[in-house]
Sequence to fold (146 residues):
Amino acid sequence: MLDTALHHDVGLSFIGTIHTPFKARGQCPRQGDATDGPDCRIVVLSELEPALEGLERFDSVEVLYWLHLARRDLLSQSPRGDGALRGTFSLRSPLRPNPIGTSRVRLLRREGAALIVRGLDCLDGTPLIDLKPDRCGYTVQARPKG
Ligand code: SAM
Fold:
Protein backbone atom coordinates (compact mmCIF):
# COMPACT_ATOMS: atom_id res chain seq x y z
CA MET A 1 0.00 0.00 0.00
CA LEU A 2 1.07 3.51 -0.72
CA ASP A 3 1.67 5.99 2.07
CA THR A 4 -0.95 8.60 1.17
CA ALA A 5 1.14 11.25 2.96
CA LEU A 6 3.24 11.19 -0.23
CA HIS A 7 0.43 12.97 -2.06
CA HIS A 8 1.03 16.57 -2.99
CA ASP A 9 -1.45 19.06 -4.27
CA VAL A 10 -0.25 20.37 -7.62
CA GLY A 11 -3.06 22.87 -7.94
CA LEU A 12 -5.07 21.08 -10.60
CA SER A 13 -8.54 22.53 -11.07
CA PHE A 14 -11.41 20.84 -12.78
CA ILE A 15 -12.58 22.48 -16.00
CA GLY A 16 -16.02 20.91 -16.15
CA THR A 17 -18.09 17.78 -15.70
CA ILE A 18 -18.74 14.70 -17.79
CA HIS A 19 -22.28 13.39 -18.09
CA THR A 20 -22.76 9.77 -19.11
CA PRO A 21 -25.60 7.24 -18.77
CA PHE A 22 -23.42 5.26 -16.33
CA LYS A 23 -24.70 5.73 -12.77
CA ALA A 24 -22.64 2.97 -11.11
CA ARG A 25 -19.13 1.68 -11.78
CA GLY A 26 -20.51 -1.70 -12.75
CA GLN A 27 -22.42 -0.07 -15.63
CA CYS A 28 -19.31 1.54 -17.13
CA PRO A 29 -17.48 -0.25 -19.92
CA ARG A 30 -13.84 -1.08 -19.15
CA GLN A 31 -12.86 1.15 -22.06
CA GLY A 32 -15.14 3.43 -24.04
CA ASP A 33 -16.12 2.60 -27.60
CA ALA A 34 -15.91 5.62 -29.90
CA THR A 35 -17.85 3.87 -32.65
CA ASP A 36 -20.67 2.28 -30.74
CA GLY A 37 -20.80 3.79 -27.23
CA PRO A 38 -23.70 5.95 -26.02
CA ASP A 39 -23.78 9.70 -26.59
CA CYS A 40 -22.22 11.50 -23.63
CA ARG A 41 -22.04 15.17 -22.75
CA ILE A 42 -18.89 16.97 -21.67
CA VAL A 43 -19.74 20.35 -20.17
CA VAL A 44 -16.98 22.89 -19.53
CA LEU A 45 -17.34 25.74 -17.03
CA SER A 46 -19.12 28.66 -18.68
CA GLU A 47 -16.10 30.95 -18.27
CA LEU A 48 -14.02 28.42 -20.21
CA GLU A 49 -16.44 28.13 -23.17
CA PRO A 50 -14.30 30.39 -25.42
CA ALA A 51 -11.47 27.87 -25.03
CA LEU A 52 -13.53 25.36 -27.06
CA GLU A 53 -13.34 27.50 -30.20
CA GLY A 54 -11.92 25.44 -33.06
CA LEU A 55 -12.19 22.08 -31.34
CA GLU A 56 -15.28 21.16 -33.37
CA ARG A 57 -13.02 20.97 -36.44
CA PHE A 58 -11.70 17.68 -35.12
CA ASP A 59 -13.41 14.30 -35.36
CA SER A 60 -11.50 12.89 -32.48
CA VAL A 61 -10.67 14.43 -29.11
CA GLU A 62 -8.54 13.26 -26.23
CA VAL A 63 -10.37 13.62 -22.90
CA LEU A 64 -8.60 13.61 -19.54
CA TYR A 65 -10.69 13.10 -16.43
CA TRP A 66 -10.38 12.49 -12.73
CA LEU A 67 -11.68 9.11 -11.61
CA HIS A 68 -12.84 10.66 -8.38
CA LEU A 69 -14.20 7.55 -6.64
CA ALA A 70 -11.10 5.42 -7.18
CA ARG A 71 -8.80 4.14 -4.42
CA ARG A 72 -5.37 5.70 -4.63
CA ASP A 73 -3.31 3.44 -2.37
CA LEU A 74 -2.82 0.26 -4.39
CA LEU A 75 0.63 -0.55 -5.78
CA SER A 76 -0.38 -3.90 -7.22
CA GLN A 77 -3.70 -5.32 -8.29
CA SER A 78 -5.23 -8.45 -9.67
CA PRO A 79 -6.96 -7.26 -12.84
CA ARG A 80 -8.65 -10.61 -13.49
CA GLY A 81 -9.52 -11.16 -9.84
CA ASP A 82 -7.63 -14.47 -9.91
CA GLY A 83 -4.99 -13.46 -7.36
CA ALA A 84 -2.26 -12.88 -9.97
CA LEU A 85 -0.83 -9.47 -9.09
CA ARG A 86 0.42 -6.81 -11.47
CA GLY A 87 1.91 -3.41 -10.78
CA THR A 88 -0.55 -0.54 -10.90
CA PHE A 89 1.45 1.30 -13.57
CA SER A 90 1.29 -1.74 -15.86
CA LEU A 91 -2.49 -1.48 -15.90
CA ARG A 92 -5.15 0.97 -17.08
CA SER A 93 -7.05 0.37 -13.87
CA PRO A 94 -8.86 3.39 -12.39
CA LEU A 95 -7.19 2.58 -9.03
CA ARG A 96 -3.92 4.51 -9.08
CA PRO A 97 -2.10 7.18 -7.05
CA ASN A 98 -3.33 9.91 -9.39
CA PRO A 99 -6.58 8.54 -10.81
CA ILE A 100 -6.38 10.20 -14.22
CA GLY A 101 -8.40 8.56 -16.98
CA THR A 102 -7.95 9.22 -20.67
CA SER A 103 -10.19 8.37 -23.60
CA ARG A 104 -10.07 9.16 -27.27
CA VAL A 105 -13.65 10.04 -28.13
CA ARG A 106 -15.53 10.76 -31.33
CA LEU A 107 -16.78 14.34 -31.35
CA LEU A 108 -20.33 14.41 -32.74
CA ARG A 109 -21.09 18.09 -32.22
CA ARG A 110 -20.68 21.09 -29.97
CA GLU A 111 -23.63 22.80 -28.24
CA GLY A 112 -22.23 25.96 -26.64
CA ALA A 113 -20.21 24.90 -23.61
CA ALA A 114 -21.02 21.23 -24.20
CA LEU A 115 -19.46 18.62 -26.44
CA ILE A 116 -21.51 15.60 -27.46
CA VAL A 117 -19.16 12.65 -27.80
CA ARG A 118 -18.98 8.87 -28.00
CA GLY A 119 -16.34 6.69 -26.42
CA LEU A 120 -16.39 7.41 -22.70
CA ASP A 121 -16.21 4.86 -19.90
CA CYS A 122 -16.66 7.05 -16.82
CA LEU A 123 -19.40 7.62 -14.31
CA ASP A 124 -21.94 10.38 -14.66
CA GLY A 125 -20.55 13.41 -12.80
CA THR A 126 -16.88 12.58 -13.33
CA PRO A 127 -14.75 15.75 -13.14
CA LEU A 128 -13.07 16.91 -16.34
CA ILE A 129 -9.36 17.78 -16.35
CA ASP A 130 -8.53 18.63 -19.96
CA LEU A 131 -9.49 18.35 -23.64
CA LYS A 132 -7.08 18.13 -26.55
CA PRO A 133 -7.54 17.51 -30.26
CA ASP A 134 -6.38 14.08 -31.20
CA ARG A 135 -3.16 13.86 -33.15
CA CYS A 136 -2.61 11.91 -36.29
CA GLY A 137 -0.42 8.98 -35.38
CA TYR A 138 2.12 9.72 -38.13
CA THR A 139 2.74 13.44 -37.86
CA VAL A 140 3.63 15.84 -35.10
CA GLN A 141 0.94 18.24 -36.32
CA ALA A 142 -2.62 18.03 -35.09
CA ARG A 143 -4.78 17.41 -38.15
CA PRO A 144 -8.00 19.42 -38.41
CA LYS A 145 -10.98 17.96 -40.28
CA GLY A 146 -11.54 20.62 -42.91
N1 SAM B 1 -10.25 4.96 -20.37
C1 SAM B 1 -9.62 5.35 -19.14
C2 SAM B 1 -8.13 5.01 -19.20
O1 SAM B 1 -7.76 4.07 -19.89
O2 SAM B 1 -7.35 5.75 -18.59
C3 SAM B 1 -10.25 4.73 -17.89
C4 SAM B 1 -10.23 3.22 -17.91
S1 SAM B 1 -10.82 2.56 -16.37
C5 SAM B 1 -10.48 0.83 -16.66
C6 SAM B 1 -12.57 2.65 -16.60
C7 SAM B 1 -13.28 2.11 -15.36
O3 SAM B 1 -13.13 3.04 -14.29
C8 SAM B 1 -14.77 1.98 -15.53
O4 SAM B 1 -15.10 0.74 -16.10
C9 SAM B 1 -15.27 2.11 -14.10
O5 SAM B 1 -15.22 0.85 -13.46
C10 SAM B 1 -14.24 3.00 -13.44
N2 SAM B 1 -14.71 4.39 -13.26
C11 SAM B 1 -15.36 5.14 -14.16
N3 SAM B 1 -15.59 6.36 -13.68
C12 SAM B 1 -15.05 6.39 -12.45
C13 SAM B 1 -14.95 7.41 -11.46
N4 SAM B 1 -15.44 8.63 -11.64
N5 SAM B 1 -14.32 7.08 -10.29
C14 SAM B 1 -13.83 5.84 -10.11
N6 SAM B 1 -13.89 4.86 -11.00
C15 SAM B 1 -14.49 5.13 -12.17
